[in-house]
C-alpha cells in the first residue's frame, strides 16, 4: 500500500490517499477522488491535471508521484452547476459574475461540453484554443462558426465538425460553411462533408466540379444523411451535363432532373429513370420528351394527375388518357379534343359527376351528358349551360338528389312551384334559393316550417307576418320566434306556443310580453334560466315570489 500526500498550492498538507500502485487507470483515479470534496477542484500531478470533478478526462493510465497538488475552483458551486448542467448559461454567468469567466479555461470547457454553441461567449484566446474548440465542435458542429480563423483553417478541427455533421445528420452537413476557404477546397474535408449532399453548396467551385466529390454528394440524396433535396443543384454546369452524375442523381431523387442540363432533360434514359421514380418529374423533362408516348405513359401510370405535364398532343391521346383516368386521373387535364368527346366525357362524369366542370361548352349543353352528371353529383348543375339550367327534367333530378342544387337553377325554375316544392320538401334550406315570389308562397313556406320551424328565416317578409305560418313554425321550433314580424313577436298565442317548448325562447318575445306574468311563468316552468329574459319589474317580482 502506497500513501500519497495531497498538498495545497501553499505546500500545506491537505489530505492523503492510499493506493496499491503508482500506475493507475483513469477509472481508479476517479474512484479514489469521487465525493472526495463537495467543492469543485483539480488534482495536479507534475503540472498535469489527472482528475477534476468539473469534467471527464480521456486518460487510459496515469503514473503518479507520491505528492499531488489540489487546486480549488474559486467560483460559487451554484454558478458552476448552472453552466455544467443547463444549456446556454455561460452568457448568463458572464453577465452575473463578469467577463473574467469568458477567459477561464475550466469554466468555458464546462460550458462547451454541455452546449457547444456557448463557444460564442468565450474570450478570443479560448476561441483559438484547440482543446476548447475541439470539445465545442464535437458537441455541436455549428460551434465552428465561433472558432478563431486559425482554427477554422485547422484540418483536425474542421474534420471533427463536418464528420459529426455528416455522421449524425444533426445539421444537414452544413458545418462546412464555417470552414476556411482553404479547407472548403480540401478534397478530404469536403469528401467527408458531402456524405450529406446538401453540404456540396459550401465546397469550392473547384470541388463542385470534381467528379468524385459530386458523385458522393448525389449518391447520398434520399439517404438517411440527406435532408434537403437534390445535391445536383450545387454541382458545376459541367457535371450537371455529365450523364453518369445525373443518372445517379435522378436514380436517388427523381426531382434532381430539374437541375440537369437541358441536354440531359432531353435524354430518354435519364428522364425515364426520373419519371419512374416519381411521375410528377415529367414536369422537368424537355418539351420533346413531354411529347414522348412511352415517357408520358410511365408518368400517368404513377398518377393520372401527371397528365397535366404532358404535351397538348398527348393530352388528347385516347390511350394515354385512359391510363390516366384509371389511375385517379381527371378530365381536368385532358386536351380540348377529349373534353369534347362524348364517350370520354360520358365515362368521366359517370364516375365523378363533378368532373363535368371540365367538359367542353358544347357538352355542357348536351342533355344526356348533363343528366348523367347531375344524377351522379347534383352540384354539377352549376356548370351546365344556361339552357339546361332551365330544363325542368335536369333541374328536377338535381334538386331531388340534393335540394341546395336549386341555387344553380335558372331564375325561371327558381320560380317554378313544382321544382321548389320538391327541393324544400327534402330540405327547407333550399327555400333560401327560391324566387322572392315563392318565398312568399303560403304552401311552399308551410312545407318548410312544418319540417323545421327555424327555416322560417328564409321566408318572405309577407309570410313572416302571417299568423298561421308563424304558429306552425314556432310549434315546430320555438327559436323560430326570432324571425316573425314585430307584430307577431307581440302576439300572446304565438309567444305562448314558443316558450312552452323552450323557455329560453322568451328572449325573442316583445318587451311587452317579456313583462307578461303568464308568459314568463310558462317559460320559467320549463327553463329556470328563462327568468333572465323577463322584463326588469317582473324579474324582481318573480325573484321575490321564489
Strands, count: 7
Please, how many helices? Answer: 35
Q: Write down the overall geometry.
A: flat
Main β-sheet: number of strands, strand sense, barrel status?
5 strands, mixed
Proportion of strand residues: 5-15%
Taking all Cα atoms into account, the compactness measure Rg is 41 Å
Structural class by secondary-structure content: alpha+beta
Describe the strand arrangement of the main beta sheet, using strand numbers. Answer: 2-1-7-4-5
On the 0 to 100 scale, the average pLDDT is 89
Task: Please supply descriptive tags for the structure shown above.
two-stranded antiparallel ribbon, flat, 546 residues, five-stranded mixed β-sheet, 7 strands
Give structural notes.
- The protein is an alpha+beta fold and 546 residues long.
- Among the domains are: 2-74, Ubiquitin-like (UB roll); 440-546, no CATH class.
- The chain is built from 35 helices and seven strands.
- The strands form two sheets. It has a five-stranded mixed β-sheet, covered by helices on one side.
- A hairpin with a 2-residue loop joins strand 4 (41-45) and strand 5 (48-52).
- The chain is flat, with a radius of gyration of 41 Å.
Amino acid at each position: 500500500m502506497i500513501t500519497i500526500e495531497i498538498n495545497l498550492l501553499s505546500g500545506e498538507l491537505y489530505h492523503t490517499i492510499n493506493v496499491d500502485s503508482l500506475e493507475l487507470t483513469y477509472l481508479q483515479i476517479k474512484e479514489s477522488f469521487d465525493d472526495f470534496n463537495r467543492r469543485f477542484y483539480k488534482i495536479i500531478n507534475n503540472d498535469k491535471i489527472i482528475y477534476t470533478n468539473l469534467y471527464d478526462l480521456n486518460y487510459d493510465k496515469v503514473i503518479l508521484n507520491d505528492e499531488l497538488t489540489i487546486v480549488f475552483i474559486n467560483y460559487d458551486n451554484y454558478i458552476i452547476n448552472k453552466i455544467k448542467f443547463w444549456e446556454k448559461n455561460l452568457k448568463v454567468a458572464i453577465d452575473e459574475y463578469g467577463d473574467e469567466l469568458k477567459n477561464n479555461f475550466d469554466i468555458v470547457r464546462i460550458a462547451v461540453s454541455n452546449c457547444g454553441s456557448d463557444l460564442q461567449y468565450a474570450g478570443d484566446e479560448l476561441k483559438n484554443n484547440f482543446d476548447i474548440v475541439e470539445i465545442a465542435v464535437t458537441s455541436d458542429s455549428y460551434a465552428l462558426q465561433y472558432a478563431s480563423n486559425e482554427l477554422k483553417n485547422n484540418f483536425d478541427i474542421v474534420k471533427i465538425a463536418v464528420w459529426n455533421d455528416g455522421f449524425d445528420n444533426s445539421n444537414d452537413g452544413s458545418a462546412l460553411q464555417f470552414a476556411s476557404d482553404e479547407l472548403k477546397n480540401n478534397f478530404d474535408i469536403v469528401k467527408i462533408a458531402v456524405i450529406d449532399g446538401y453540404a456540396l453548396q459550401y465546397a469550392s467551385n473547384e470541388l463542385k466540379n470534381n467528379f468524385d466529390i459530386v458523385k458522393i454528394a448525389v449518391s447520398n440524396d434520399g439517404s438517411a444523411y440527406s435532408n434537403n433535396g437534390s445535391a445536383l443543384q450545387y454541382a458545376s454546369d459541367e457535371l450537371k451535363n455529365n450523364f453518369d452524375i445525373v443518372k445517379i442523381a435522378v436514380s436517388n431523387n427523381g426531382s434532381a432532373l430539374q437541375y440537369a442540363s437541358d441536354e440531359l432533360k432531353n435524354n430518354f434514359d435519364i428522364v425515364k429513370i426520373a419519371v419512374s421514380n416519381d411521375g410528377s418529374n415529367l414536369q422537368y423533362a424537355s418539351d420533346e420528351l413531354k411529347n414522348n408516348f412511352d415517357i408520358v405513359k410511365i408518368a400517368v401510370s404513377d398518377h393520372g394527375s401527371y397528365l397535366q405535364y404532358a404535351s397538348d398532343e398527348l393530352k388528347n391521346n385516347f390511350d394515354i388518357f385512359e391510363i390516366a383516368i384509371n389511375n385517379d386521373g381527371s378530365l381536368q387535364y385532358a386536351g380540348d379534343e377529349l373534353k369534347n368527346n362524348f364517350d370520354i366525357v360520358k365515362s368521366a362524369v359517370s364516375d365523378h359527376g363533378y368532373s363535368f366542370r371540365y367538359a367542353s361548352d358544347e357538352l355542357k349543353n348536351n342533355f344526356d351528358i348533363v343528366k348523367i352528371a347531375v344524377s351522379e353529383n347534383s352540384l354539377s348543375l352549376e356548370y351546365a349551360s344556361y339552357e339546361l339550367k332551365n330544363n325542368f327534367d335536369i333541374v328536377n333530378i338535381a334538386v331531388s338528389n340534393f335540394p341546395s342544387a336549386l341555387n344553380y337553377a335558372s331564375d325561371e325554375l327558381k320560380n317554378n312551384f313544382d321544382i321548389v316544392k320538391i327541393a324544400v320538401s327534402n330540405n327547407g334550406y333550399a327555400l333560401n334559393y327560391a324566387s322572392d315570389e315563392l318565398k312568399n308562397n303560403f304552401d311552399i313556406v308551410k312545407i318548410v316550417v312544418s319540417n323545421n320551424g327555424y327555416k322560417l328565416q328564409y321566408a318572405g317578409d309577407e309570410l313572416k307576418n302571417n299568423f298561421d305560418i308563424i304558429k306552425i313554425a314556432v310549434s315546430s321550433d320555438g327559436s323560430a320566434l326570432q324571425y316573425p314580424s314585430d307584430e307577431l313577436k307581440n302576439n300572446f298565442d304565438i309567444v305562448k306556443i314558443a316558450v312552452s317548448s323552450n323557455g329560453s325562447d322568451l328572449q325573442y318575445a316583445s318587451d311587452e310580453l317579456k313583462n307578461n306574468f303568464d308568459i314568463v311563468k310558462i317559460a320559467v316552468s320549463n327553463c329556470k334560466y328563462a327568468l333572465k329574459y323577463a322584463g326588469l319589474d317582473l324579474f324582481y317580482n318573480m325573484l321575490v315570489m321564489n
